[in-house]
Design a protein that fits this description.
With about 650 residues, the protein is α+β, with helices and mostly antiparallel strands. The chain contains 25 helices and eight strands. Among the domains are: about 130 residues, Serine Threonine Protein Phosphatase 5, Tetratricopeptide repeat (Alpha Horseshoe); about 90 residues; about 130 residues, Heat Shock Protein 90, CATH 3.30.565.10.
Length: about 650
């Protein structure tokens, strides 16, 4: 049967050389004429579909579907029902591939779902997974990464259950592609290398050039250029030394390799071959990719008119398909061309368009879906293994006791076995609902992160969840529970306090203490902290605006302590100076000047949104209280010889509830 992958790199269809292939096809045609049973006819047709030329295999597929459907209309049972259902499902699946190659995604998904429905009735799990995987590939190119991940992990469970290692490798290939689109290149390498190892183990040579190219592109994105070239060269060597014929995507990616090597004439030759094949196939996605690649080559050659023409054709096709990925590539190419030509007025609209498409492809929800699906998958996998092992041991124990003294211990075995089964069931139910609760809490916390992004750095919440997850994976439920409790308490306080204009100093201290403790977990005790409240302050009576200090504490940890080699310290002080209440945050990190150097060196563009919004809050409070609130930021290096770090000081509006 056909395995379908819609990918950006290389796809091979396995064939022998021209003459041996013709002999094989002729032999299969003779066998088909001599076949006397429909089961054998379907088997031969299935093989013909694999090796026949374009335009021929579709006819064999239609014939196989008609034979299978004719038999299914009878009253089949058992093995025959499963066999003909498989051939019928394969025929429908292949019809979905035909629509997909013509970029008719709706029709393709309709046929893939029909194939799944037939396979479910017959219990053909492997066929279900293959069609699910094809739908996932369509969802990937439409930018629906969360939906695609759900489907891919369902496929992974089925392939592992039936022992299909090629299918497992295909799933990791797809997950790696999603990671690449989300700019998570390290995870992309991880999944693509798993795929490579399984292809090699199973001698699945038809995919080796594909996966070597993908890994090369991953390393190129990571700026590991020697390893990138190593894998890219492997890919092109596999193509040039193989008897396998290649399709348009293969040519396009050979062209991409030549671009990396600076051989533009060769790149142009292969890109034009790819365009010609994709136009003959009427495959709009590959036509789009061909035009984008040709535009890149002409841009590098400074042939801007040709470059613009191909990029505009690519954009037109992407908009017809409504595919964010294809729109993104074409719009970004047009933006780069006009920027190169120093025509900002023409570049700006394309910048907006490609950023809009990028936001669809690279959204936080889909990134979190990867973590969520991985957590759920790993948990379910461990539970299945554990359950199977416990059931095996239980069966052995029961069998041994029966052999020793069947009559004497029969009731003991029955009651003991029942007790053990109930205990195991209760244990696994408890673990299941506990893990389900953890996953639900993670979802809720991620939703709260979006609502409260103005108060809390989303990286802090996400990394805290990762730290808690690590304890769950280590099965350290006590620590996981403790930190999850702390994290939940912090989120609860943020939700509560964010609705209030003023909270007590006591509540503020409790919130900051919890925040510090979670940051220490995240940074593995890289710093100590102290919160000092002036003895003249009544922590229950004095009320202040919530979380004014948190963004500056975050900066002290992220930009001061983080870059420090030794263990750091952050001190928070709240005290009266005459009639004014002063907030002071001090750290012994690397200081502003050194932090900026390191930030520029690492090319970091991150800026705390909470810091910006805090300054806006202070402007608003200034208007409301008629008290000028200024932020005084001091680099200790400039004030004290031999000292390093930053001190932040500002006036805090307050209310005394004893008098209000």
């Amino acid at each position: 049967m056909l395995r379908y992958f819609v990918i950006f790199y290389i796809i091979f269809f396995s064939t022998a050389n021209y003459f041996s292939q013709n002999r094989l096809i002729e032999g299969l045609k003779k066998d088909l004429k001599l076949a006397t049973h429909d089961t054998l006819r379907c088997e031969i047709l299935d093989q013909l579909i694999e090796v026949a030329d374009e335009g021929e295999w579709q006819k064999y597929n239609e014939q196989m579907g008609q034979i299978a459907l004719k038999n299914l209309s009878g009253n089949l049972q058992g093995r025959e029902l499963k066999v003909f259902s498989r051939y019928y499902a394969t025929s429908i699946h292949n019809q979905g591939i035909i629509f997909s190659e013509k970029s008719n995604d709706e029709k393709a998904i309709e046929y893939f779902n029909k194939s799944i429905e037939v396979s479910e009735k017959a219990g053909n799990k492997n066929e279900i997974a293959i069609s699910l995987q094809s739908i996932a590939q369509i969802e990937i190119r439409k930018g629906n990464h969360k939906k695609a991940l759900n489907q891919l992990y369902e496929c992974l469970k089925i392939f592992e259950e039936v022992g299909d290692e090629i299918g497992i490798a295909d799933v990791h290939l797809g997950i790696g592609d999603i990671c690449f689109r989300q700019n998570d290149f390290k995870r992309a390498v991880e999944h693509h290398e798993r795929s490579l190892n399984l292809y090699i183990k199973n001698n699945y040579t038809v995919a080796l050039s594909t996966i070597n190219f993908k890994i090369g592109v991953d390393y190129n994105a990571l700026k590991d250029y020697p390893r990138a070239l190593e894998y890219l060269q492997k890919s092109i060597n596999l193509i040039e030394n193989s008897d396998h014929s290649v399709n348009s995507v293969a040519y396009l990616n050979i062209a991409q390799i030549y671009i990396y090597q600076g051989n533009f004439s060769k790149a142009l030759e292969y890109a034009l071959k790819g365009l010609k094949i994709s136009e003959n196939m009427q495959n709009k996605i590959e036509i789009n990719h061909s035009h984008v690649l040709l535009s890149k080559i002409f841009k590098l050659q400074k042939k801007y008119n040709l470059s613009i023409d191909h990029a505009e054709q690519a954009l037109k096709i992407g908009q017809q398909l409504s595919h964010p990925a294809e729109i993104y590539m074409a719009a970004k190419q047009l933006y780069d061309i006009y920027t190169d030509m120093n025509l900002p007025a023409k570049a700006i609209p394309y910048h907006h368009l490609y950023m809009e498409s990028k936001s669809i492809l690279d959204n936080q929800e889909s990134k979190n879906a990867l973590l969520e699906q991985k957590l759920k998958y790993e948990y379910e996998k461990r539970e299945l293994i554990s359950k199977a092992e416990n059931e095996r041991k239980l069966a052995e124990l029961k069998s041994e006791n029966q052999r020793k003294n069947l009559l004497k211990n029969i009731w003991l075995v029955v009651f003991g076995g029942a007790f053990l089964l109930i205990s195991v069931s209760v244990f696994f139910l408890y673990r299941y609902f506990k893990q389900k609760s953890v996953i639900t809490n993670q979802k809720n916390n991620l939703l709260k992160q979006k609502l409260l992004v103005s108060q809390m750095n989303p990286h802090f919440i996400f990394n805290s969840l990762n730290a808690i997850q690590n304890y769950i994976f280590k099965q350290d439920s006590l620590k996981a529970g403790n930190y999850l409790s702390q994290f939940s308490e912090l989120i609860r306080m943020i939700l509560d306090f964010s609705r209030k204009d003023y909270i007590s100093v006591q509540s503020e201290v409790k919130l900051l203490t919890n925040y510090f403790q979670l940051q220490k977990l995240r940074f593995e005790n890289k710093f100590d902290f102290n919160i000092e409240i002036d003895k003249n302050i009544n922590p229950e009576a004095i009320h202040i605006p919530p979380m004014l200090a948190q963004p500056f504490i975050e900066n002290a940890i992220e930009h001061g302590i983080f870059y420090k080699k030794e263990k750091g310290r952050v001190d928070v002080r709240l005290y009266f100076e005459k009639d004014l209440l002063i907030y002071e945050i001090e750290d012994d990190g690397v200081g502003i000047e050194e932090a900026m150097k390191l930030k520029n060196k690492l090319k970091s563009s991150y800026e705390s949104l909470a810091t910006i919004i805090t300054k806006e809050r202070m402007d608003t409070l200034t208007e409301q209280t008629k008290t000028k609130i200024e932020i005084e930021i001091t680099d200790k290096k400039n004030e004290l010889q031999g000292e390093s770090g930053v001190k932040v000081k500002f006036i805090v509006p307050f209310k005394n509830e004893d008098y209000d």
